[in-house]
Amino acid sequence: DIETLHSFEIFCGALKENKKLEHLDISGLTIHPFMVIKLAMAINNHSSLQSLNLSNTSISNLGVKYLCGMLKSNTTLKRLNLFNNLIIRENLQDFEELLRRNKGLREINFNYCNLDGDCVRVFAEILKAKSCLTNIKLAKEDITIPAARALSDYLASKPKLEELDLSNNQINHETLGELVKSLHKRIVFKKWRFPTIKKLNLTMNRLNN
Known about the structure:
By secondary structure, the protein is an alpha/beta fold. It is built from seven helices and seven strands, in the order αβαβαβαβαβαβαβ. A seven-stranded parallel sheet has the order 1-2-3-4-5-6-7, with no helix packed on it. Helix 1 packs parallel to helix 2.
């Protein structure tokens, strides 16, 4: 309602003036696209913000587009949490541009964002081309065989990735087989001169089928 929007605008004004805030958590608050614009403007050139938690905010596709557009020039944000929001194929173009321009971002949480297999495949291809991420969360998505192949290609491209969450994806042995080669090289062979994966989450999958 109007009162909520006005209150949020006042909040964003205060946020813009706070130069020491490092972590912002507004999870659970339903965010209207207008509110996303105000929030993005407030944190765009923020000099200290390192993590932004927007989980369970029902952020719209348009809201995601606004957010990515404004965060492209942010130089301090390292962690972006979008847990349990709907991310569609068109939004991946926004994230591609964000990752191309923002070299400081290290973690994206897409857990429970309902990415279908094609979206996971496209996101993996984007990561391979442009990403400096060290932590990626993709729980409860649709990891199809083509998606797993794209993720395997990404892992084999020697990224800086240290943590990967693929839990609760109903991954079976056939799909896992597409990931094994690159995962095995990263975890076992020390001759690969880049960070090995320190944390790999495969819980709640069908690996015994």
